[in-house]
Amino acid sequence: MAFNNRGNAYRDLGDFARAFADYDQAIELNPHYATAFSNRGNTYADQGNQARAIADLDQAIQLDPQNVNAFFGRGNSYYAQGDYASAIADYDQAIELNPQAALVFNNRGSAYAKLGDHARSIADFDEAARLEPRFADAFFNRGNVYLYQGDYARAILDYDQAIQLDPQKADAYYNRGIAYRNQGDYTRAIADIDKAIKLSPQK
What we know:
Blueprint: H1 2-13, H2 16-29, H3 34-46, H4 50-63, H5 68-80, H6 84-97, H7 102-114, H8 118-131, H9 136-149, H10 152-165, H11 170-183, H12 186-199
Helix pairs in contact: 1-2, 1-3, 2-3, 3-4, 3-5, 4-5, 5-6, 6-7, 7-8, 7-9, 8-9, 9-10, 10-11, 11-12
């Protein structure tokens, strides 16, 4: 357990080489240590190595079928690979194990949006926002679905809420600006896009 926990600390610091070394050691000492496989898998995912992430998370789930973080992490890796159906299946399992997980509802909502299932997407963002009323991304993501649907008034309300919760969220200003532009409110559109550029000039 000590190696696993130190690995978590190194991961938090962004020192992935040392994190991997500690997770490897934890697994060598206990090949049935599901949490170490899960943590190592999620660290591979942090680095964009989704294939290795999925392999480790498969092992974590095999060792501990109640491991919510492993299902959630594997769902995120499938999402990153563009396999949204597999991502949703894993998010379903994570939600069954923990129905209070706002982040899982949010991510499943994003997967449904990618598949064009906007009704289920909005329902998941609704639930994420209900479970965690200060979850800016849930409002932002729901706003994006409304924007895509052409419901600019609802999109703007959600972007308003996202910005209130996270005033540094450049994407929310930008997308709200697009919604205002599509409504013909060019003054507000320019003001929002100006703000987005100031917050994130590289985008």
